[in-house]
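Our consortium's second objective concerns turning raw sequence data into structural hypotheses that experimental partners can test. To show how far this objective has progressed, the report includes one record in full. It was chosen at random from the queue rather than selected for favorable results. The single chain below, 304 residues long, was entered without modification.
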Amino acid sequence: MIQVELAGLKLKNPMMNASGVLSVSSATLIEGAKYAGAVVTKSIGKDERPGNPNPTVVWYEAGVLNAMGLPNPGIHGFIPEIREYLASVKDTPLICSIFASTPEGFAELAKIAEDAGVHAIELNLSCPHEKGVGMEIGSSPDHVREITSAVKKVCRVPVFVKLTPNTDNIVKLASAAEDAKADGIVAINTLRAMHIDIWFRRPVLASESGIGGLSGPAILPVGVRCVYEIYEAVDIPVVGAGGVSKWEDAVEYILAGASAVQVGTALLGGNWQLIPSMCERIEEYMKKEGINDFKDLVGAAHKA
């Protein structure tokens, strides 16, 4: 078993789920904790949010396009889920993903989540399709710095900043997060994308703009590139995310500099068993390559 320490968190393996629809309830998070090194909640805001009307999801061979609209029960509505998880699981850290529109809003949510007992916070500064949150505020290094700093002032648990690839320079965003004392970076979130129905001659997704976020295998090379660049620029750990569907994808991220890897689209349907299967194959790969310490694999592509 590949045990990992990530910003002070002890993980039984380097794999976790990406924040998303699979992680909105304690039941799914508890199930995931049987397999993952850590589990990440759905992005939670201050108030209950129904999300966008359907259609919100389009499936492709190479991925999924979605504009869910950040549906969630609100932080106070989610606290019972946090408590139920913590009462049932003792060996798998719970990372709470949060979103807001201001530094003060992020700080308030982070403090409430920390007081509820979560082990770490993930700042969603990268949702590609909702006004006033996500990448709209996370595309500015100054905003990333201000939000991260505000959260770090009120939180003792590790704080990870999830960055958008929809920017001209993701390294500047990562550096701003590090300047503000972030404990780690998560890269990447989904890519802005659109699908048009040629018969109705209009965008399929029901979001106001018709734009959603593309996930799945199609974005793997983008995520690997982002992690590679960030790893060279910062000293805090990086978590790779985006397009992981098999063990080789996870190894790519690790070689690029990821200390842990998130899986999203490939877990839809509750296929949590994919995680231990990936971990087993990564261990076999390390043995075959004569690598005894997982740390020697992290960032190895930079030393080749």
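The partners drew two points from this record. The chain has a mean pLDDT of 95. The longest helix spans residues 274-288. Both points have been shared with the crystallography group to help prioritize constructs.
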